[in-house]
Design goal:
Blueprint (H helix, E strand, L loop, with lengths): L2 E2 L3 E5 L7 E6 L10 H19 L4 E8 L8 E8 L10 H5 L7 H19 L2 E2 L2 H4 L5
Antiparallel strand pairs: 1-2, 1-6, 2-3, 3-5, 4-5
Helix pairs in contact: 1-3
């Protein structure tokens, strides 16, 4: 977990992309049944998280996706599309991601910390270090 507040958390998964972040609600809701206050906060937080990811110099665009049929717990993925990689534009990013080498741990941790601090500055909440979580998100 790299960021959290009372209602939401963001974790990262290691991949070949500059960052793969997962926005999760603490309460068990799916997208279609979010209460109005959570839906409003979700929209604001999604915008801030996407802006944080797109502020990374190695990212050209933040792709957003929701997966999980039948699970009543909202998980929204934000994928940082590598900058200066024209072949990744206009195609399913995940088709490319599985063929990329994993980022070095130091780069992945630096990117995650940058995104977490950006969200804290723009939205509030609390950034978490890998040590606080007990182990790096992978």
């Amino acid at each position: 977990m790299i960021w959290s507040n009372e209602r939401w958390r963001i974790s990262v998964e290691r991949s070949g992309l500059p960052i793969t972040a997962v926005l999760v609600s603490h309460e068990h809701h799916d997208l279609a049944d979010l209460p109005a206050a959570l839906a409003s906060e979700f929209g604001q937080l999604l915008v801030v998280a996407a802006a944080a990811i797109e502020a990374l110099p190695s990212v050209g665009r933040a792709h957003v996706a929701r997966y999980g049929d039948g699970g009543a717990h909202l998980h929204v993925f934000l994928f940082g599309r590598p900058a200066r990689a024209g072949q990744f534009r206009g195609s399913p990013l995940l088709d490319w991601e599985e063929n990329l080498p994993k980022l070095p741990d130091a780069v992945a941790e630096e990117n995650a910390a940058f995104v977490a601090q950006w969200i804290v500055a723009a939205y509030g909440g609390r950034a978490h270090t890998p040590a606080e979580a007990g182990a790096p998100d992978r």
